Amino acid sequence: MKKRKQKHFKPPVFTTIIGKSTRITGDVAFSDSLHLDGEIHGNILGEGENSTLTVSDQATIRGDLRLANVIVNGRIEGNIHAEERVELTRNAVIIGKIEYSLLEMAMGARVEGEMIRLTESREDQPENS
After folding, report:
1. How is 21-48 classified by DSSP, letter by letter?
2. What is the pTM of this model?
């Protein structure tokens, strides 16, 4: 049986940065990539098949996420629906449900909730589809 080669994920260059002294109350929609050092109290929608959110160790989100990719090193209180990839680094704290196609979790990351793998990620589908 041939072993499938795993593609290494390289996050895109940030197109939007929310600084650590910024607090947003309300829903946020973005395309491409967003780097968060501050706080968002609201839902986050990543538009596009490569939308990527990076949550730094200084950042906090209170709301649900729906996007393609998320890299978490901060705190999220809400549900995550990631069509492609969820990467939880050692300082990540998730309080809520995570739905993902691919998951990478470092020692020290904490999840208080369900973890559900989505079926038929784009990487599982044949290239001719």
Report:
1. T-EEES-EEEEEEEEESSEEES-EEEEE
2. 0.83
